[in-house]
Amino acid sequence: MGIRVIGVGAYVPERVVTNHDLARRVDTSHEWIVSKTGIRERRIAALDEAPSDMGAHAALQSLGHAGVDPRDVDLIVTACATPDQSQPAVATMIQEKLGIGSTGCPAFDVNSVCSGFVFALSAAQGMMLADPERYRNVLVIGTDAFSRILNWDDRRTCIFFGDGAGAVTLRQTGDDARRIHFELGSDGRGGRAIEVPAGGSRRPVDGDVLEQRLNTFTMDGPKVWDFAVETVPRTVRALLARQRLRPGDLDLLLLHQSNLRMIEALMGSLELPMDRTVTTLELLGNTASASIPITLRAAWEEGKLRPGTRVGLCGFGGGLSWGAALFDW
User: Fold this and answer.
1) For 216-270, how does the pLDDT look when each residue is reduced to its tens digit (9 = 90+)?
2) Could you write out the DSSP letters of every residue in 14-82?
3) Which of 93, 146, 235, 297 could form a disulfide with 161, with the two C-beta atoms 3.0–4.6 Å apart?
4) Cross-strand partners of 108
5) Does 88 have pLDDT greater than 80?
6) Spatial CB neighbours of 212, under 8 Å, sequence gap ≥ 6
7) Rounded Cα distance, 193 and 220, in Å
8) Dihedral over Cα of 88, 90, 96, 101: its sign
9) Strand 181-186 and strand 321-328: pairing?
């Protein structure tokens, strides 16, 4: 039995926020943001639009691409760090929006921040392998609305993020043994480098939290940079080595869309040219757990995913956490 990605979908909101828009609010400029991050604009969810809405749109596109009826979905795994609400799971909300709640298929969330999609992909494949009779067609979704947790007066963070969702459809195959290979890891010692300090059950929202904006996203940029440039190349090389491959054997490496300068540095460290990757952050910003599946959809639209294309994925972010995947299209 094999497991293949047979469909991919993406969704981004209509509203565009440019660097010039941000420069009217915080002390920055279009030129500075582009020079440091490569980002020119980002999409922001409408007031009545949440991760479950965006995730449902991406899921429908993925299912359409795969030719799978929503009623034939056996499992939904959703990566999300900015859920609509603390309960229930975003995946169950997406299930309801797809009109398949009555099927009773399991639906649950994974929160590993910007690595979440790769972790969700691994969890989904594991369940497919463990119970192949039950899990034949599976949706894996990454969806986030970081605009809802940002301090829009903090130029160190607000310039990076956009909202969106991406999804893939996995299916069992009986004619080959292809599977997705993974290399996952976490280091809780770095948990404070990327965090929302308050707003959870340890420190619920109160007047002091709101006054100090402790319920908004914070990031230690230099520490995150150092973490990424050290961990991502090592993780990708380790994953490839277990399959007796080297970075040069990849046809395409899609990285979490954190920062164009970081992506350039990571590709350089792996001795891969930039034409072996695809980037979407220039017009979408960092879409967190959605960035890898959104970029996978872009790669398909650009004609870079042909039968047999050897694809690597790597997410990295809060936790600290990291996850790489390897598969043939």
Assistant:
1) 999 999 999 999 999 999 999 999 999 999 999 999 999 999 999 999 999 999 9
2) SEEEEHHHHHTTSS--HHHHHHHH---EEEE--TT--HHHHHHHHHHHHHHHHT--GGG--EEEEE-SS
3) 146
4) 77
5) yes
6) none
7) 5
8) negative
9) antiparallel
Do 127 and 75 touch, CB atoms closer than 8 A? yes
Q: Catalytic site residue 286?
A: yes
Write out pLDDT tens, residues 128-162.
999 999 999 999 999 999 999 999 999 999 999 99
Q: DSSP letters of 161-181?
A: B-EEEEEEEEEEESS-----E
Cβ–Cβ under 8 Å, residues 116 and 142:
yes
Instruction: Select from 231, 146, 229 the least CA-distant residue to 187.
Output: 231
Q: Is 27 exposed, middle or buried (0-12, 13-18, 19+ CB in 10 A)?
A: exposed
> Which of 57, 158, 256, 314 is the catalytic position?
256
Tell me whether the CATH fold assigned to 2-173 matches the one assigned to 181-328: yes
Asked if the model's pLDDT at residue 175 lies above 80, the reply is: no
The whole-number average pLDDT for the span 41-46 is: 98
Question: Which candidate in 111, 137, 259, 286 is catalytic?
Answer: 286
In terms of residues, how long is the chain? Answer: 329
The hierarchical CATH code for the domain 2-173 is 3.40.47.10
Strand-pairing partners, residue 321, are 186, 317
> With bands split at pLDDT 50, 70 and 90, how would you rate the model's confidence at 271?
very high
Is the pLDDT reported for residue 176 higher than 80?
no
Distance CA 288, CA 284 (A): 11
| Cα 295 from Cα 257, distance rounded (Å) | 8
- pTM value is 0.97
Q: Which CATH architecture has domain 181-328?
A: 3-Layer(aba) Sandwich (3.40)
- What is the average pLDDT score of the chain? 97
- Give the pLDDT mean for 199-219: 95
256 in active site? yes
| Known catalytic membership, residue 30 | no
